[in-house]
User: Fold this.
Amino acid sequence: MSESAVAPPTARPAIHLQGVQKSFDGRTVVDVDDLTLGTNPIEGLIGPNGAGKTTLLRLIMHSIKLDRGTVSLTDPASPNGSVVLSKKPEHRIARLGVVKTNQVIQDFPNLTIWDSLLLAVAEARSEQPDRIYSERRVIEEHGDEIQQYLDYFTFENPNGFANSAGEKKLLDMIRCLLLNPKVLLLDEPTAGLPDDVTEQVMELIRQKAAEGMSVVVVEHDLTVIWGLSDLVHFMAEGSVILQGDPASIRKHETVIEKYLGSGHVGG
Amino acid sequence: MGGILDFLFGSPAFLIFGAYTVVMVVGLGLLLHLQLGLAGIGNFGVVGFWGLGLYAFGVLTVRYDLTFFLALLGATAIAGAAGIVMGWVVSNLDVDGVLGATLSFAAIVFFLTDSERDLTGGRIGIGTIDFPFDVGNRTDLAWLAILVVIVGALMYYVWRVHRAPYGRLLIATGFNEPLAQSLRKPTFRTKMILFAWTSAAMGLIGALYASFVHFLFPTQVTVGITIAVIVALVLGGQQRTWGALVGALLTIALFDIVIQLYVPLPRTVFQQAFPVAKQMIFGLLLIVLLLYRPLGILGRMRRENYVRGVTHE
Assistant:
């Protein structure tokens, strides 16, 4: 199960990490030599706490700085080919089509659910200081799309604020989906959600991946990982040490030893 | 007519001056509302940008003989350029840093007006700066009317911004900048542009004041203006369109017009103790407000009401 065995030429938007390193206070948190995320529709990223999964995603988004290495985006549909992300600010990376949901719940105080989603879809040209009448256009162009998400998931009051942690978690994901990204990084998207909503989220992710979005999921709920992923990356001590399909990863002795424990084999 | 006005309001000139101050504070308060209430930039140097516009206009007309409109343009541009520099300086500072930097900027402007005597006349002052037109003894009133129109337009603009994607962008930038960035919003650029044009507008309001007062002295650009604007906005409601207006009516209008006209105190009290007492009361009011009602009389934004109106049209 070496890395070269599962890195075929990609026909999907993918993220390449080369020589990426990050330390905090002298402790190496991420040390990835060569990694491609997104060759498959949905890829899972698992590993014990402190393995560096969230840090890896944040390095891709450049919300924290790399110590060294490069992160690039390859999009077969784009004439530019490969774009280096690791020198760009986060909003440029999002514009290039790479977005990430947040592990820790993030929300805008003062913005209602509708507000928050309209913010996500509004293009820069509608947000200029002199465009004080452009709200109608944003709603005409994107209102239906927002309404579809609000119909798919149940929000207590879409005109009000997201009250529960679950609503904020869903809102975070819908905001990302509304950006229609090429690569979607999901950091624990179903944490804290009830089972039926988790099922809805999984179905939506499958649908988006089928439409061509490359999805990378970090999740501790392994039923989500086994149920969704086409490929699973196993990360420990800052590096991806194993890659493979879900069936082989969940049986691999290193994964059992370092992460699952022997009781989970039958899982 | 003049006799009736005198009977009701004391001197009309006094009333016009008081009203001009109120409207000016409302205008500056609206601009600070965009910076502080929406975009979260705690600018304590309002008087710096206003004063820069005021003095730039004075210097350009008196020392360089520029016409009114050229001087107005120049003063606005200079204040805007200062806004760009200060916006860049404060863009990555925390709240305390922004407070310190903007206060220092206002102090620099004050000391420049005092020290650059060749240009500003120092403590002797600079003048005379005339109105660009003359309609006899109603010119003051006409100037007030022009300011009312400008501030009224600004208030309409701010009201619209709350209902436009731009307002939402400012709120997102002010309340969770990293999250806004992750949604492809250029927050640094947004803050820079906002700070530049609102600073320029503060400069414009300052430049207009130069014609109104005719003579400029360094004592006009002290922290009093900043305090007046902040107290008015925080009392009214820093997150609300009407906050600056409500606050200015309850502070400046009350102290500079109502009490002085209708409370029978000896003239010496109004000339000596009253201005000092007013500043003390404003300071105390600010402390009490920030402790017990930081969002002021009008309270938090009511976006739930507004969005419902938009999505169900």
Remarks:
- The first strand of chain A starts at residue 14 and ends at 24.
- The beta strands of chain A are 14-24, 27-37, 42-46, 68-74, 82-84, 98-100, 183-187, 214-218, 231-236, 239-244.
